[in-house]
UniProtKB/TrEMBL annotation:
Mg(2+) binds at residues 49, 142. The lineage of its organism: Bacteria, Pseudomonadati, Pseudomonadota, Alphaproteobacteria, Hyphomicrobiales. HAMAP family: DNApol_IV. InterPro entries: DNA/RNA_pol_sf, DNA_pol_Y-fam_lit_finger_sf, DNA_pol_Y-fam_little_finger, DNA_polymerase-Y, DNApol_IV, IMS_HHH_1, Rev_trsase/Diguanyl_cyclase, UmuC. The active site is at 143. The record marks 54 as: Substrate discrimination. This is DNA polymerase IV.
Amino acid sequence: MAQGAAHHTGFCRDCLTGQAEGLRRCRACGSPRLVYHPELYDLTIAHIDCDAFYASVEKRDNPELVDKPVIIGGGKRGVVSTACYIARINGVRSAMPMFKALEACPDAVVIRPNMEKYVTVGRQVRALMQELTPLVQPLSIDEAFLDLSGTERLHHDPPARILAKLARRIEREIGISISVGLSYCKFLAKVASDLQKPRGFSVIGQAEAVGFLAPRPVTTIWGVGKAFAGTLEKDGIRTIGQLQTMEESDLMRRYGTMGQRLWRLARGIDDRTVHPNDPAKSVSAETTFFDDISRFEDLVPILRQLSEKVSTRVKRQGVAGHTVVLKLKTADFKSRTRNRRLEDPTQLADRIFRTGLNLLERETDGTKFRLLGIGVTDLTDPARADPPDLVDQQATRRAAAEAAMDKLRDKFGKQAVETGYTFGTRNRD
């Protein structure tokens, strides 16, 4: 433990001076950004999230935007990729249609995404994380889990202070801010990082976990989206505290494997470890046709085949995609890219295909295409992927059928079983 840490219950995030409990401002620099917690120097699992990442990078590069509402996204028919906090105060949210965002915040400055620039900045942030610990697990371009167990001897400081130093260094050297969540497990570290954005530093200890979670809505739990939350509400379950009173067997009987996840996470039980990896920014598959194709019905089986390839790849890589991307190239070599963000991330060929199919329908207007591709991006932890759809029972049955097909293909080869969409068409393209 750092010298002096044992004699204080907290520290100042701006100057790192140790603070006795009860102070409201730093005794050294006067800053109000103090951190106190009984378990502050014992916790080692962190989640780091860059604040309004794309918008923050654009404001860094153009100081004239600092005090203005900024939206990163497409044209009036596009959607919001992200928005700065000034725009969010006016009601702008990620994935909101652009025309609605501009109705809510008509003075906003709209900037088209510059992914190459954002990727470069994301890699700079990740490099600083990896200087602290080799156990860095990226979830996307702008967020990651860190396991700082055993690093105190190396850095001569406990993890909490190491993370505060990292936040200061990112602001000083890269010019953007981060929010930090510190806890004993990944689930609560992620929850903590969302509590005080922007420039947040929140701590959730093991002793307080159950009480902290009890009043919170069930949507706090990974995998509980709007549809599943609606099902739980019909069953009279709105808060995590209600889940805490229920038996594991009862929840599993009602909701299957998701019921077990509800029971465990409601009690702050999450034994997943931080796995260092360097995932791709996206996973995709595409094909160029021998002859241009314009008919929707001819494109459908090809889209299905490509969706199955993408699904296989994300499952093997241990990731899930939050956004489905359709790629088309016309006969005169003009590219079209369309995307849709899902409510929950997915690994399923069925969801990738059906989402891509909806996007494809809007593009098949007689135009001849020479290339078709499908992929997923915004890669994330697969633990959050494909919760049971208790509203659409057919989707649940298709997911079960896909799992059965995966087992057959693993055992007998990828062409051992086919869907009706692709039967007899494997070599068509």
